[in-house]
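Hi D.,

Good news: the full-assembly prediction came through. Inputs first.
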Amino acid sequence: MASRTIENYLKQLYLEQRETPEDSIAMGRLAVVMGVVPGTATSMVKALADSGLVHYEPRTGVRLTTAGQQLALHVIRRHRLVELFLVKTVGLDWSEVHVEAEELEHVISDRLLERIDELLGHPLVDPHGDPIPSAGGTVRELEMPSFVNCALGQALMVARVVDQERGFLQFANQSGLMPGAKLEVLERNVNADLVTVRAAGREAQTMSTSAAAKFLVSPAGKSRAKKRKG
Amino acid sequence: MASRTIENYLKQLYLEQRETPEDSIAMGRLAVVMGVVPGTATSMVKALADSGLVHYEPRTGVRLTTAGQQLALHVIRRHRLVELFLVKTVGLDWSEVHVEAEELEHVISDRLLERIDELLGHPLVDPHGDPIPSAGGTVRELEMPSFVNCALGQALMVARVVDQERGFLQFANQSGLMPGAKLEVLERNVNADLVTVRAAGREAQTMSTSAAAKFLVSPAGKSRAKKRKG
DNA sequence: GCAGATATTTTGATTACTCAAAATAGTATC
DNA sequence: GATACTATTTTGAGTAATCAAAATATCTGC
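Then the structure:
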């Protein structure tokens, strides 16, 4: 049984690997996201390699093996189902469930997990719009434009918000930009590095390009299926 | 912040202390309930004493301090609220929630805990009939007779089942003897060490005196209040 | 192709928890 | 009151995860 530390390393490695699928993850990067000193990352990665969970190339970096990826996806499935459960069933705010799920993801039994999945009707995405891996360990990451590179003036919908920071999510809330919200992108100012959007029935909201890049969108009409086939 | 190991020691000490409130807990006993060797219990207890959570008298035993008891009660509150939540809201069976709660009790945030408490309407007892300590750290343990020493032939109700073993709880289920169930005690045979009871609308069920002692009862008419005042 | 900057690995220690087994204290027996 | 039995404590060691800091490798610029 993988320790919670191991589960966290694998999860973080998976998330990093998503960002740059082609190359392996540097020790320095891993150390930063895990909040440890580089030496710790090195020795931990060696242990993971001994367990067959990662491929480790000294001075180059680390990549998940298939086994490591399966485990990582299972942790992420637990995390995201728990997040949705906390919002839908328990009634917590989507801005606060991430930290809670960070703990719960390590202790939920398979029995409870599948019960939650069933209760929620086998959902496809969590409250942030992040896809929920299946029990079998597959995820479908949809390619979606963000506020930065979508069409201007079109009817869009927030599909996913790729930042888990409490403060950022509260900002999104206040601007009416949570997943499912209708909006249009009004203007982009390349030199000032700004994007202005307006959510349905709201004041226009301006933000930096880097903030804008965290909102992924889909066309407003085409509401994506929210449930997995039973 | 107390580690999960410390929380477990305190919880177990509390439960033992409740059994024999007058005397202190022997190291051997603590070692058994914690599933460790006696030496481990000794060194752990010394650490707890250094933190002011227990009074430790070498070669005699250990008792919780007020601080230790408060912490223990908080853990037990989390455990029992989680159990009830898993039964009522998630729909798990009462025979399986104990093991699940054993993990969850250490990672639930105060925020989530109070939300669950609210959602359940500030309940007084968990699915086994065990009382739920208040947020302030007080519990009311009611003195109740068991199948072994209650009146024969009277209309009774199962109020509490003091065994968390999955198998035992399933047996209770099958005999219709879960908390809330109406029943009467038909007969006791001192020599054969047996007790026979009949739950409402069921076949009579015979069990040993030691099994019978695990069912605590209250008069059937007087249904105890189930909710705490808001 | 060498010097310096930067990233990585190694080494040695630390903390929390655990066990095995030896030492010790307390209790009971005769 | 010496002997034996039992419970407890001590000692020494191990594991998982971590840090600080020294050693080493790799890249970059000239």
